[in-house]
Amino acid sequence: MSSPMHPALTQALIELEQHVDKEGWDQHPRLFALVDTAELIAAEPRLAAALAPETLEFEGQIGPLRTYTSIEQEGVPTDKPLDEMLAGIAWPSTVHGAALVVERLMLPPSAQQQLPEGEADADAWVAAHPERQEVRIAVGVLRDGSRDCALRLRGKDKDEDVLSGPDLVPNLVRALADTLHD
Fold first, then answer.
1. CA–CA separation, 127 and 144 (whole Å)
2. Cα–Cα dist 98/147, whole Å
3. How far apart are CA 82 and CA 141, in angstroms?
4. For residues 153 and 135, is the Cβ–Cβ distance under 8 A?
5. Rounded to a whole number, what is the largest CA-CA distance in the chain?
6. Neighbours of 48 (CB within 10 A)
7. Span 123-179, pLDDT tens digits
8. Which of 21, 53, 101, 143 is 20 to 30 A from residue 175's alpha carbon, by CA?
9. Which residues of 88-97 are buried (b: 16+ CB within 10 A; e: fewer)?
């Protein structure tokens, strides 16, 4: 079953992944609140020039090109496993969505099936596997259930090689979505 996608969320994730990519690889997880740009400008008019330098006319309405503005959350704990860190997060109602950018090691499905049962340190086994791929994953979810992912392989480190789709990392998407529930 495919998850709902939202073009503005996809745009926000691509921008986030490219923003994080400018600082290179080997970064800690980065967490972002996604807020409605028009609401943010209404609340903070002095931000208008920075957030919506270009406008778009659509059906007689003029508004910002960007629907969501990403606000990085400082002080994200890096000493906890990702699932524990996400379980401790709750967003206020003014946050329309959340995005997370993380780096991980992934294996192709055939190699995942080789994981020895009872392996005490699966991370070490994956890290030593010759078919491992380093990836950067940008995951985003909205309160309406929309979700999307952007995935960059370190071995194919070009913007045009970024993969996207809502179901690339379903467990991470689900954990991030849980942070939006009241």
1. 36
2. 10
3. 16
4. yes
5. 62
6. 15
7. 777 788 888 889 999 999 999 999 999 989 898 878 888 888 888 889 999 999 999
8. 21
9. ebebeeebbb
